[in-house]
């Protein structure tokens, strides 16, 4: 029997696909809604090749309340939602803010309204370390605990803070409404998962990150340099106050991150905390130069780079203090940076065209 049925918005995207896989591998049923804006349906085949189960899929926009209502009506067994669907390019968010507010905030509200009508009480939300902004502005906040004051420095980050607030108010209101009506109010819960820097791919080499446009994150760009699609990596600044002058981030393997969602679902079911935030990071910071070195090692040769000016809006250090997730969710990262680099390289080498490439024969024949 299924442990539960989870609606996964944005489930064909990078983190959503790995979380859908982890849910299926752990006995959940999965229903995905995604408008395929930044993903491909091929990922459903890959999930099935890996675990032998296929999620239900609906091509629905998360801002389309009627479309969401139909999915909930078709699947009355859904008891929780993991909400990934969003636009996520920091630079672009400052250029087309209305699109970002519409999808990220409007989409989140549409989803909560539809969940309310369907009486689905649990939501796990993809938030981001970016909500903290520059944590070095506050004394003693590196590594960053959940208590660090919020202070996003870009439109994307502000959309995440807004929807965190909307979820918090909504859950509190539903709890109050149920209390007044003498109904079980503890059912309504939300997890705000603040991811640090997700990276890596499936160790099989058949599932990974496949953004539709030009990548802008460090690891996918290093992948492009390794395959020769890019001449070199531009290192954004070597004048930061770090050991080698480059900025520090907390890189977390996407398989570990996916498991964090299952841990959060379990926690909501068991502890019914209302709304609570957790940092999902390793607690270990790495500089850009360290990442170039680690990835070069698995590729087998030095990858070329050029140091240029700092990128606007970048901060010195985003390293998580993951103690709350370690203790409460009983979750911690298990995989190393070396695992992430090796898995990413296997994915990039096997699939230079991402999901447009056929999987290796052994998977098809297996
Ligand atoms: P992704 O782009 O790979 O996945 C997002 C998915 O949402 C895509 O499949 C896309 O097609 C879908 N989508 C976009 N707009 C939609 C809409 N209007 N209706 C329905 N589906 C829509 O991104 P990801 O890296 O997997 O990120 C997932 C979530 O995690 C996002 O909310 C993102 O903001 C958050 N997050 C990501 C990172 C990161 O570095 N990747 C870090 C912190 C937080
Ligand atoms: C990592 C480091 C760059 C590219 C972003 C979002 C954040 C979250 C994760 C969604 C930084 C340096 C990068 C390059 C470089 N996403 N770099 N050359 O900026 O930490 O976080 O993605 O929530 O919100 O802001 O990730 O991978 O872009 O950069 O030197 O070509 O690599 O300066 O220090 P970032 P990133």
Automatic annotation (TrEMBL):
Catalytic activity: UDP-alpha-D-glucose = UDP-alpha-D-galactose
GO cellular component, one term: cytosol
Swiss-Prot/TrEMBL cofactor(s): NAD(+)
Recorded metabolic or biological pathway in which this protein acts: Carbohydrate metabolism; hexose metabolism; Carbohydrate metabolism; galactose metabolism
Group of enzyme by EC: isomerase
Enzyme Commission code: 5.1.3.2
Entry's transmembrane regions: none
Matches recorded under Pfam families: Epimerase
Keyword Chloroplast applies: no
Keyword annotations of the record: Carbohydrate metabolism, Galactose metabolism, Isomerase, NAD
BP terms from Gene Ontology: galactose metabolic process
Domain NAD-dependent epimerase/dehydratase: 6-281
Molecular function in Gene Ontology: UDP-glucose 4-epimerase activity
Record function comment: Mutarotase converts alpha-aldose to the beta-anomer. It is active on D-glucose, L-arabinose, D-xylose, D-galactose, maltose and lactose.
PANTHER family associated with the record: UDP-GLUCOSE 4-EPIMERASE
Subunit structure, interactors included: Homodimer.
NCBIfam families: galE, PRK10675.1
Family of the protein in this entry: In the N-terminal section; belongs to the NAD(P)-dependent epimerase/dehydratase family.
Protein name: UDP-glucose 4-epimerase
Species per Swiss-Prot/TrEMBL record: Lasiosphaeria miniovina
């Amino acid at each position: 029997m299924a442990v539960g049925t989870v609606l996964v918005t944005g489930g064909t995207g990078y983190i959503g696909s790995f979380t859908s896989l982890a849910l299926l591998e752990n006995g959940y049923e999965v229903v995905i809604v995604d408008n395929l804006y930044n993903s491909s349906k091929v990922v459903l085949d890959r999930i099935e090749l890996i675990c032998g189960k296929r999620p239900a899929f609906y091509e629905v926009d998360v801002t389309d309340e009627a479309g969401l209502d139909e999915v909930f009506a078709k699947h009355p067994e859904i008891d929780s939602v993991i909400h990934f669907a969003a636009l996520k390019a920091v630079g672009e968010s400052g250029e087309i803010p209305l699109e970002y507010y519409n999808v990220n905030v409007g989409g989140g509200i549409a989803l909560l309204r539809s969940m309310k009508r369907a009486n689905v009480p649990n939501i796990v939300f993809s938030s981001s370390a970016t909500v903290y902004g520059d944590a070095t502005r506050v004394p003693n906040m590196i590594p960053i605990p959940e208590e660090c004051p919020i202070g996003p420095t870009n439109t994307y980050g502000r959309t995440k803070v807004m929807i965190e607030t909307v979820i918090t108010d909504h859950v509190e209101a539903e709890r109050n409404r149920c209390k007044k009506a003498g109904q079980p109010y503890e059912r309504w819960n939300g997890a705000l998962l603040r991811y640090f820097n997700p990276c890596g791919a499936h160790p099989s080499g058949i599932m990974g990150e496949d953004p539709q446009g030009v990548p802008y994150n460090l690891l996918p760009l290093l992948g492009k340099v390794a395959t020769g699609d890019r001449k070199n990596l531009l290192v954004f600044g070597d004048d930061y106050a770090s050991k080698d002058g480059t900025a520090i981030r907390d890189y977390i393997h996407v398989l570990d991150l996916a498991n964090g969602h299952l841990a959060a679902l379990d926690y909501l079911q068991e502890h019914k905390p209302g709304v609570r935030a957790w940092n999902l990071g390793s607690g270990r910071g790495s500089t850009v130069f360290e990442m170039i070195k680690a990835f070069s090692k698995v590729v087998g040769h030095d990858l070329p780079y050029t140091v240029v000016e700092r990128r606007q809006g970048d901060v010195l250090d985003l390293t998580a203090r993951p103690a709350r997730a370690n203790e409460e969710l009983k979750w911690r990262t298990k995989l190393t940076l070396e695992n992430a680099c090796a898995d990413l390289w296997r994915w990039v080498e096997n699939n230079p065209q991402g999901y447009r490439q056929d999987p290796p024969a052994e998977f098809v024949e297996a």
